[in-house]
UniProtKB/TrEMBL annotation:
Name used for this protein in its record: Uncharacterized protein
GO cellular component: membrane
Cellular localization per UniProt: Membrane
Membrane-spanning segments: 138-158, 178-197, 202-222, 228-248, 260-283, 295-318
Keyword Transport: yes
Organism: Diatrype stigma
Primary localization class, coarse: membrane
Membrane topology, record value: Multi-pass membrane protein
Lineage: Eukaryota, Fungi, Dikarya, Ascomycota, Pezizomycotina
Keyword presence, Membrane: yes
Region of interest called Disordered, as start-end residue ranges on this chain: 324-353
Keywords per UniProt: Membrane, Transmembrane, Transmembrane helix, Transport
Length: 353
């Protein structure tokens, strides 16, 4: 039978594999193709999802820790490119002509791309690294994702508390599913609302809920019912990552190469922290061990607040850059008279106030 230490090693292995395979978005070479060509990403990413799921199910049949390590290795290898790759490809129209779009629809979409100054992706060369490192985008977004990885680690370990309280095996397996259900709903509802209302309001509301739950965990000696509520409310974290990635697509929409680099860097550096931080802040046993985590929960609270601050900083910097761009466009329009009136591109609904 494997020990908690073996399980921690398996988790560390998964994080290491994610760090290795996350660096380069798996779908990026397809982004250099023409609109009408078949993109390998539309086949690669779903295939990785299916294989990832099969390996996850296979873990239920392992008989020793070495088989578990093998499954975790495969899961990390298959899972890593999917998340960043999916978010990246959703931000570029490089898939072949779908049956539900007419020629007029495609022409209209291309006009909108030109109007919004969104160009086709180019090659991911050294110049991309140089210009990306000179801008604030990659630094702030990577910082936000690192904060998200660190503060979100203890959210899914309600089962350790249930085990400590001597709940039955059936209850230990069933009760935490409420958190995952809330996570799913929050992921869908949060991103939907963020497309209608300012994203900072959704992010602030979710962060406030998570701060409340984290404070409950820091206090720890609270009524059992309140502790259940606190664990379940941690599922609100489901909306944070999708909104953050959609914000990357919005803020860096005009530079596909930089966007690919940012998304790969976010997951790479985020999971590089996930390799060693849990070993220090969230040990399985000991006076500061699970599920009490006397050090881990306070640190999680700090990084939740830093994540929120980083996200707000992104919106403020983006608004500043948009204002400068609009001012420059206005001056250029005034300098050169044209027959057609200038096209005003409205800012994104989920960014505006």
């Amino acid at each position: 039978m494997s020990s908690g230490k073996d399980g921690r090693h398996g988790h560390t292995l998964l994080g290491l594999i994610k760090e290795i395979f996350n660096w380069y978005p798996s779908n990026y070479p397809a982004a250099e193709r023409n609109f009408r060509e078949v993109s390998s990403a539309r086949w690669l990413l779903p295939a990785l999802e299916v294989l990832w799921g099969l390996c996850t199910f296979a873990q239920s049949r392992v008989t020793n820790v070495h088989q578990l390590y093998a499954c975790r290795f495969l899961i990390g290898m298959l899972e890593a490119p999917v998340f960043a790759g999916t978010h990246f490809i959703l931000g570029i129209p490089d898939s072949p002509k779908p049956f539900y779009f007419t020629d007029e629809d495609i022409k209209l979409a291309k006009k909108r791309l030109d109007r919004a100054k969104i160009r086709k992706p180019g090659k991911l060369g050294l110049d991309v690294f140089k210009r990306s490192l000179k801008r604030w985008h990659i630094w702030v977004f990577v910082f936000c994702y690192i904060c998200m990885i660190i503060c979100g680690y203890p959210d899914s370990y309600m089962n350790l508390w249930l085990k400590e309280e001597e709940y039955s095996v059936v209850q230990i397996n069933r009760l935490p599913t409420v958190t995952y259900a809330i996570n799913i709903v929050a992921s869908w509802l949060g991103t939907t609302l963020a497309a209608i209302y300012p994203s900072w309001t959704i992010y602030t509301g979710a962060t406030a809920s998570l701060v409340f739950s984290t404070i409950c965990m820091i206090v720890w000696t609270i009524p059992t019912a309140l502790k259940f509520v606190a664990y379940y409310v941690l599922g609100m974290s489901g909306c944070l990552s999708p909104i953050l990635y959609s914000t990357v697509n919005t803020v860096v929409k005009g530079d596909s190469e930089e966007r690919a680099l940012i998304m790969g860097s976010m997951m790479t550096f985020g999971y590089s922290f996930n390799i060693w931080v849990p070993l220090l802040l969230f040990p399985t046993v000991g006076p500061n061990g699970a599920p009490r985590w006397r050090i881990g929960w306070p640190v999680s609270l700090v990084f939740r607040l830093l994540l929120w601050a980083g996200f707000i900083l992104v919106l403020l910097l983006y608004r500043r850059d948009s204002k400068r761009s609009n001012d420059d466009s206005t001056q250029e329009t005034e300098s050169y008279s044209t027959e057609e009136p200038p096209v005003v591109v409205q800012s994104e609904a989920h960014i505006k106030e």
